[in-house]
Amino acid sequence: MKFKLFKDRKGKADQAKNNKFVKLGREIYVQARKGGPNPDANFGLKTAIANARQINMPVDNIERAIKKASGNSDNVEYDEIYYEGYGPGGVAIMVKCLTDNRNRTAADVRSIFNKLGGNMGESGCVSYMFDQKGMLIIDREKYEDLDEDTLMLQAIEAGAEDVITNDDSFEVLTHPHEFETIKRLLEEEDLEFSSSEVRWIPQNTIDVEGENAEKLLRMMDIFEDNDDVQDVYTNFEISEDEIERIG
């Protein structure tokens, strides 16, 4: 499912941008706590900072999150938790959270599932339908002279598993353990990424429309508004025509 379509629907709103700043600020904090404040020696932090810069997150916000992690004066610790469940039409949904209060987050996620015709299940109930992959996204507008064959050759030589061509982007897929190495090798080829992350990719997708599509889009919006939710992975597809119909 092209989750970016949902993000694009809200991307023009200031509140949506603020939500992204909060989420990436939390990710930067966690990565700095985990591997230290120096991005040159902490790949996770370096990647989080790069993603923050792609959405024009203020430098002050980035530095504040790193400084907060280094001092940790408030003793805040975030846990990474995945919640799994089913949405309308039986589609599979995985919700990645960073939280300082497991009880609050579990209750919030369960409520979102229930309100929109889904249900939260046990750990492992849908994750077997996904594969974890590194994903490096290249904006095609930025590289007008870069063709698919050239990128494919560069990516495969670097150790990537596949390159997917979309109208506006290239997606380089990697094994999660090779993600860091391949990203660095492609950066040495003067490639920049609009997004780089390890995420869960569905093995198969389900087309949805009508009322189920409306409920699922609403569910994605509410998940995105929740500060504890870092990302949502699903196995459904909604056509652009259907998204336009819903509005």
Structural description of this entry:
With 247 residues, the protein is of the alpha+beta class. The protein is 45% helix and 23% strand. The protein contains nine helices and ten strands. It has helices at residues 4-10, 14-35, 43-54, 59-71, 102-115, 148-158, 179-187, 210-225, 240-246, and strands at 79-86, 92-99, 119-120, 130-139, 162-165, 169-174, 195-202, 206-207, 229-234, 236-237. A four-stranded antiparallel β-sheet has the order 3-1-2-9. Strand 1 and strand 2 form a beta hairpin. Helix 2 (14-35) runs antiparallel to helix 3 and helix 2 runs parallel beside helix 4. The longest helix is centred in the N-terminal third of the chain and has 22 residues, at 14-35. The protein is globular. The two termini are 18 Å apart. Residues 1-7 have low confidence and may be disordered.
Notable characteristics:
4-stranded antiparallel β-sheet; 9 helices; 247 residues; disordered N terminus
Low-confidence stretches: 1-7
Give Rg in angstroms: 18 Å
Estimate the strand proportion.
15-25%
Strand order of the largest sheet: 3-1-2-9
Order of helices and strands: HHHHEEHEEHEEHEEHEEH
What is the percent of helical residues? 40-55%
Helical stretch count?
A: 9
What is the average of the pLDDT values?
87
SS class:
alpha+beta
Quick one: overall form? globular
**Number of extended strands:** 10
How many strands, which pairing sense, and closed or not: the largest β-sheet? 4 strands, antiparallel
**Distance between the amino and carboxyl termini:** 18 Å
